[in-house]
Write a structure and sequence with these properties.
The chain is an alpha/beta fold. It contains ten helices and eight strands.
């Protein structure tokens, strides 16, 4: 398609000051929706384990599972770029394992980039994957895999209020530059905060995006589609600060469906059946 997003598109957005829109999606239908909505990047996050499958922590997700999810998302996206997260393991096992995992993702799912959490500790792996011809989306800052280093209590995902300590600014600047030098084409600075975040975005030539703790000081934002639309079941009891409340809509719809079934009434979208009068 002529309007297909490319890495050059994202670099031009950074140069011109136009913000980049990234969304995390885990299924085919949501991928189709966000692509039609015009986002620039669809990230297949390993957060699928905790947020969709009920895992207790993000380390339980496997390569095989991420391949299945990435295939589904890739089939739903025509225009945006698609990246996929490495699960915990291949990056930590060294450059050779990282290259094998990246090649598998590209060959079996057709993604455009691979995202490496905690990439600042493995610049040699970033370089090796890049040398293999696969673009790298490098994540650093307070992430699910690095939170303890920054004195943040472990959670599946740090909260929006967490920020990297200001004393770490110089180290994070060095990490960002090191990742760019290693070949990363995008950076995901998680929980950056306005001080370190703006400094990093200005210091490197590649686009810097952010999820939790990000803001307008970066080149763009990342947000889980489920979080943006209020999909999580626990929002039924805690009204969310989101753009919609899909969990409540779904609850109300299924409740109405159950009432119709129990009352012997026609269900919406079902095969038409005669009413009690035989009409």
């Amino acid at each position: 398609m002529s309007d297909r997003t490319t890495l050059d598109t994202l670099r031009e957005k950074k140069r011109s000051g136009e913000k980049i829109v990234g969304v995390v999606a885990w299924d085919h239908q949501m991928a189709r929706i966000v692509d039609r909505a015009g986002v620039d990047l669809v990230s297949v996050g390993d957060t699928v384990g905790v947020n969709l499958w009920g895992h207790s922590n993000p380390f339980e997700v496997t390569m095989d599972e991420m391949v299945v999810v990435a295939r589904a998302v890739r089939r739903g996206v025509d225009r945006a770029l698609v990246s996929v997260d490495f699960p915990y393991g291949p990056l930590q096992e060294g450059s050779a394992a990282a290259v094998r995992a990246a090649i598998r993702f590209v060959k079996e799912t057709g993604v455009d980039l691979v995202k490496l959490d905690g990439a600042a500790d493995f610049p040699e792996a970033v370089e090796a994957v890049t040398r293999a011809g696969i673009p790298v989306f490098a994540q650093f800052g307070i992430t699910p895999q690095t939170a303890l280093r920054y004195g943040v209590e472990y959670r599946a995902t740090p909260s929006a209020g967490d920020q990297v300590p200001e004393r770490m600014r110089a180290e994070l600047l060095a990490q960002a530059r090191r990742l760019e030098e290693a070949g990363a084409v995008l950076l995901n600075f998680t929980n950056s905060g306005p001080v370190a975040g703006e400094a990093v975005a200005r210091a490197v030539g590649v686009p810097v995006l952010g999820g939790f703790g990000g803001g307008p000081w970066l080149d763009g934002r990342m947000r889980m589609a489920g979080a943006a639309i209020g999909y999580a079941a626990d929002t039924l009891d805690n009204p969310p600060d989101t753009y919609a409340h899909v969990a409540r809509t779904a609850y109300d719809a299924i409740s109405a469906y159950a009432r119709d079934v129990r009352a012997g009434r026609q269900i919406a979208g079902g095969v038409k059946v005669p009413d009690a009068a035989g009409n």
